[in-house]
Every structure is written in structure tokens, then in C-alpha cells.
Design brief:
420 residues; alpha+beta; Rossmann fold; Phenylalanyl-tRNA Synthetase, Chain B, domain 3; 3 domains; six-stranded mixed sheet; five-stranded antiparallel sheet; 14 helices
């Protein structure tokens, strides 16, 4: 049980509960002469026992001359406010505080005492919840700033180490209860596996390691595929089904793209079905993003910020002569100044808007023009109109000017309008 290669020359915060696992890890860190401090969470879930754990840890730190940080939590209230289970609330609270403390101290890692049996229990919890490869790959020995030096060590060896080293620890009576899923797996399922095969636990751990390796390859392949399919336009992403036809689209690929933007598995199933059924314009929302079904794919936009798009426009009045050349850039509009009524104004498009697209006779509904341009929902929302004082559309900004205001042979003065 050599943890020195993992912790050598690193500054460590050890999450110390007072239980046998974290006390063994504390002793191993001392033996390896690691540079570490202790952090203890009092969740106030077990009354006097919780306070007893805190006192035990304080006494240990004082005896060993170790720096100890203690945080008190109102876990029940936090769980109720955030609609979380007690277990999940405690997890969120402790890891958030550990990371805050790590940054404050400028330390390298937070060490937690998960071991091989914890890995098995987590595997079965995720399996029973219907997890995919990502969930079944288990915990990692190094995951960002979290390290688990005991992850390969079974509980039996940890107990043997504690007895041989004459260590003291605190017993949590709730570990013996079977109210929680983890404890049911620990006390009911794993003993059945032991009865089936003496090598059952180690064999399952090998499978978890295989899944972890396969997960890394799977993620890399998915990323490569998404780079081919997803186009980035500023803050907007477009999942292009012309590149990846719908009949070959697999749900995992769509889920891999959307999960990082707050969409859960059930939502992605709804999106997938709506996409197959051809429902353009249908929108789905996560807490931070919106995904909209368009004709040729899916458009993803952020809803975190104010999506009102503002542009700056510069104006330049030019005397027309025979050498003047029309600038073809869509960022520029060149207009017959004498046909305009001022002041010109910028506004968003409105239902019922009409204009005379350059090169066309007669008017056209702006909504029909958008369809012709194959504009997405987000592009329509962003689109702005430059209008005259009488609210006539002069320019669908960045798209098309109105034919009535174009430069002709009779134009004397040109107003050059440019997005800057």
C-alpha cells in the first residue's frame, strides 16, 4: 500500500471524517512524510455523534501537530432548499468547501479515502440507475484536483492495516443500516457475490478498469465525430444533419453534445424523437441553453445572457461619380441618400413587416424572406432592421437592402452604412 508516488512533492488537503478509511489514509500520509492538512465536515446529521466525530478529529490533529480546518453545515435545510437527498446535499456541500479551501490555501489536491469496495458499491448504484459507460467506469484515482490514494485497496486490507498500526477510529452506526442503497449493496448484494465466486469482487473491479479505458476511447471518438458535425457561429452552435443524416444519427452522439449544456437524458430523448418526427421550430430548454429544431439540424443558443443583439453602424455620405464602385460586402449598405427620410432607426423585425428585396418587383413579407434565406430561429431573433423616419425598411441588416433605396444612375449622393 504505497501511496508515496501519488502524493510526493504535492500539497494535500485530507478529508478526515474520523472513520477507519480516512484515519488509515492520514496515517499513511504521515508515514510517507507528505505535506498535508486536515479538513473535517460536521453535517449535524447524527446529533451528539456528529459532535463526537469533530472532537475526535480535533484531538487527533492536536496530538499529531497537524493543521485542521472544520466546517459546520446545516445539511437538512440545504437539502430541503435545493430539493436534494441528504446524501447528495452532504456531497455537494463538502466538495464545494474542499475546493474553496484548496484554492484559498493554493494546495494541489484534495485527498479522499475511497477504496476498492467503495468503487464496487458505486458501480452497482450507477448500474441500478441505468447509467452508461461514463457512469459505469467508476471513480478515478486522479480526477482533476481530487485524488483517491486507496482506490485499489479492498476494505479487508484497510482494516488489517488499522489493526496492525493500532489506529483509533470512529464508527458511524448508520453504516450498518440498510436504509440507503449503498448500504444495501454493501451488506446484502456484495456478500451474495462473494458466495458465488471468491474472485467476484476483483473480477468486477477488472471490468470497471476495462470500462474506464474504453470510455476514454469512446469519448475521443465522439469528440472527433462532433467536430465534423457541429458548426460554431459566434455563440451559436448548429448540429448539421446534412453532414450526418438523421437515419444514421445515434442517440448517444446527440446526448454527448447536449449533456454539457444542461440537458438531461430524458430531454434528449424528447429532442431525438421530435427530430425524427420532423417538427421544425420546436424548442427545448435547459437551465442555461435552448435547442431548436431547424430544417437541416439543431440550433443551440445560450439563454444565460441578455440575447438582445446590439450593433454599431457608421454612416458616410459620398458624392456619386462615374468611378464609384458598389461594395459587395453584406456588412455594408449603399443607399440613395435623397430617397431617405431621417432620422434612420434600428429595430428588431416585427410580424407583418414587408419590404422590397433588392432585385425584386413588389413587396415581400419579411417572414417569407427569412424562409427563402433559410434562416434559423435564432438568426431571425437577432436580425435587425434599419428604417426611415416613416418606419420603412431600408436594410435588413447584413442580408438585403430595399430595392426602393438602391443606388441608380440618377443617384447624386450615396449614404454608405456599415456595421462596425
Amino acid at each position: 500500500m504505497n501511496i508515496k508516488p501519488l502524493v510526493e512533492d504535492k500539497k494535500i488537503i485530507l478529508a478526515l471524517s474520523g472513520g477507519i478509511d480516512s484515519m488509515v489514509l492520514a496515517d499513511m500520509l504521515l508515514q510517507s512524510k507528505a505535506d498535508f492538512v486536515l479538513a473535517h465536515c460536521n453535517f449535524h446529521l447524527r446529533g451528539e455523534e456528529s459532535d463526537g466525530d469533530e472532537k475526535f478529529v480535533r484531538d487527533y490533529a492536536e496530538r499529531k501537530g497537524l493543521t485542521l480546518y472544520v466546517k459546520q453545515f446545516d445539511t437538512l435545510n440545504y437539502a430541503e432548499e435545493h430539493k436534494l437527498s441528504i446524501e447528495m446535499a452532504a456531497r455537494e456541500l463538502r466538495y464545494a468547501w474542499f475546493e474553496e479551501l484548496r484554492q484559498q490555501l493554493n494546495y494541489d489536491y484534495i485527498a479522499v479515502a475511497h477504496h476498492a469496495d467503495d468503487q464496487l458499491e458505486t458501480f452497482f448504484i450507477n448500474l441500478l440507475r441505468g447509467a452508461g459507460i461514463r457512469g459505469l467506469k467508476g471513480m478515478q484515482k486522479v480526477n482533476g484536483h481530487i485524488i483517491r490514494p486507496l482506490l485499489d485497496i479492498p476494505r479487508t486490507e484497510i482494516l488489517q492495516y488499522a489493526v496492525e498500526r493500532h489506529l483509533e477510529w470512529r464508527e458511524d452506526h448508520t453504516n450498518a443500516e440498510t436504509l440507503y442503497l449503498r448500504n444495501k449493496i454493501r451488506h446484502e448484494l456484495l456478500p451474495v457475490i462473494d458466495g458465488i465466486s471468491k474472485e467476484g469482487r476483483s473480477t468486477i473491479l477488472k471490468s470497471i478498469n476495462h470500462l474506464a479505458s474504453e470510455n476514454e476511447l469512446y469519448r475521443e471518438l465522439l469528440k472527433e465525430k462532433l467536430l465534423q458535425i457541429v458548426r460554431q457561429y459566434g455563440e451559436t452552435q448548429f448540429f448539421d444533419l446534412k453532414i450526418f443524416p438523421l437515419f444514421t444519427l445515434h442517440f448517444p452522439l446527440l446526448f454527448e453534445w447536449l449533456r454539457d449544456y444542461g440537458f438531461n437524458e430524458d430531454q434528449v430523448h424528447f429532442i431525438y424523437e421530435a427530430l425524427k418526427n420532423g417538427q421544425p421550430g420546436t424548442a427545448f430548454f435547459s437551465p442555461t441553453h435552448r435547442v431548436t429544431i431547424e430544417r437541416d439540424g439543431l440550433e443551440l443558443t445560450s439563454i444565460c445572457k441578455n440575447n438582445d443583439i446590439s450593433i454599431e453602424i457608421s454612416y458616410q455620405q459620398i458624392a456619386k461619380d462615374e468611378n464609384y464602385q458598389i461594395d459587395p460586402s453584406p456588412q455594408v449598405a449603399q443607399l440613395d441618400c435623397d430617397k431617405l427620410t431621417f432620422p434612420l432607426q434600428l429595430r428588431k423585425w416585427q410580424a407583418g413587416d414587408r419590404f422590397h428585396p433588392l432585385g425584386m418587383k413588389g413587396s415581400k413579407l419579411l417572414s417569407d424572406f427569412f424562409v427563402d434565406q433559410k434562416m434559423t430561429t435564432h438568426q431571425k431573433e437577432e436580425c435587425q432592421m434599419l428604417t426611415t423616419a416613416q418606419d420603412e425598411i431600408v436594410w435588413v441588416v447584413g442580408r438585403r437592402i430595399d430595392d426602393r433605396f438602391k443606388v441608380t444612375d440618377k443617384t447624386k449622393t450615396i449614404l454608405k452604412v456599415q456595421i462596425v
